[in-house]
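Recap from last week: sequence in, structure out.
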Amino acid sequence: MRIEAAAYRGKPVFFELIGPWPRPERMRKTSLPVSNRGHPLNSQKPCTILILFTPSRTAVVSFRWLVGPGEERC
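Predicted structure tokens:
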């Protein structure tokens, strides 16, 4: 049993008795089909980004390695 209460200027303005701890809304079971819960790639964004950018990074690094430094220090 949990009791919540609030007061304003020394006078009680809110009082509530709460029974067993309620289950949060986000943890309740949904009746939506799996296809409506979100796109499956949403959980794979980091891998997708890595796979998409690795070839371009490799191309840039290879080009800079072949061309050499832009300026030589004295």
